[in-house]
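Appendix B, record 7
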Amino acid sequence: MNDIYVMGERRELFVDNFLIEKFTNAEQRLHTPIRRDVVLNFDAPAEFSNASGYQHIVKTDSGWRLYYHGGIWRPSPAFPEKRTRAGLFAAESSDGIIWKRCVITDAPKQAPHTVVTAGEAVRRKLFIASAYVFLDENPDIPVSEKFKMIVPGEYGKYWRPVLYLFTSPDGLHFDLKQRQRLDLEGDFDSLNLCFFDTLAGYYRLFIRVRNFGVRGIKTAVTKDFKRFHSQSDLVFNDNLEMALYTNGIQPYFRSPHLLLGFPKRYNDNEQIWDERMLCKPDLKRRVFMAENGGCVRLGTVSDDSILIVSRDGWHFKRYAEAFLRPGPCIEGAWVYGDCALTCGMVPTRSELGCGAPDELSMYLTENCAGNEPNRLRRCVLRTDGFVSLHFPGEGGEAITRPFTFSGGSLSLNLSTSAYGKLAIEILDENNVLIPSFELKNAIELSCDSLEALALWKDMKSDLRSLAGRPIKLRFVGRDADLYSMAFIPHQKSPKLPELTTDKQQPLFEFEI
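Structure tokens (predicted):
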């Protein structure tokens, strides 16, 4: 790469190959969330559900709001025939750990306690189960349209899947914004996402499509929800065939120029009922679903979640390894609908205490089509901890592409072992070492910190003399993981305290 990337003060994650020009015995390592507590059981009388899905999280002024649908959609031994029409519900949290249900006192009789109170949605019999609500960050919209909701439905004399647009000032009471359909081509039988891209200045949509029967993702952009442009399937960096049921694509809140998605990957074992089913958990439920659900695939399906990453919204790096596997739970982890990550994440306090920094909480659906209501489980991940630049125990290095930056110090999200370390050398765009920033002058970092300052013997943390100048970074480390970096305003270098102990005296003295 000969072009100079203007990084400025952006936080850069090592989730793709964009920044790295060369690896030497180092690699990008995918990390996985750790399962924690169940934060919500979908067992309230009005919402009782064994098939709640498509949950998504919206940031509000007071915290976070979780949207989810309820209803018994899929058969189970306890509910072999019963069906209930889905309603859209909400819960709120100030910390991402404790969630309390929203109570709507003026909900219509057709859907008591549901969030969506728009009569048009009920009258038109729209697919509320696939409704998606988002907070519109477009600075030009009126307050009455602060929240938007897109809902799949039918249009015209002949069945055709389309999307309808609703708006709301509070995210709880919606009105139909446009009576005409959103002119998009797609299948929409999933959670179709939308958000205002503050960097690009337009709305991005990511919708469900089927290509030759394979579930996939399509994107489009619009400024007014009337004319849609650049409609195309996502372009991945591989030729693998994967059925992606959902997409979960959002700007990462610490680095909005990076779009991270967590699609639920659908695997139905070619819809063949054979001996492969014997090793999968919950065989009894699989048999029931296959025999009572109307098709064999309900018994053969298992899902997991993967990570996809993009900088332009069209071209994505896709990790073939699962970001989240179905896991060890025997009940409700390996059947149709499980292991779907909620769209959105919340920064939460660490349960470790002792000064441990905040982490990311993500949420997944468990126990679909069970006798008991399904549940939402919290998973935790290190902040920025999706992918690391990993240096093995025997050591390795990586060199970045040339870039310019703003600011005066370099902050690193870094984790090493006690044996591990990371040092940084700075070169110009022609690979010539810059004096005072050679490896011999770099101070080796050994720590676990979200904000470790890069240091050199003479310059300490002061990089102001290099701001605006094209440079490269050479990372040399062992037993270390570098998750992200950001150039920040100059931070005063820490000063090493002087020891009062006589350094010539042994720490212990023994009589012989």
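Remarks on this record: The chain has a mean pLDDT of 89. The longest helix spans residues 283-292.
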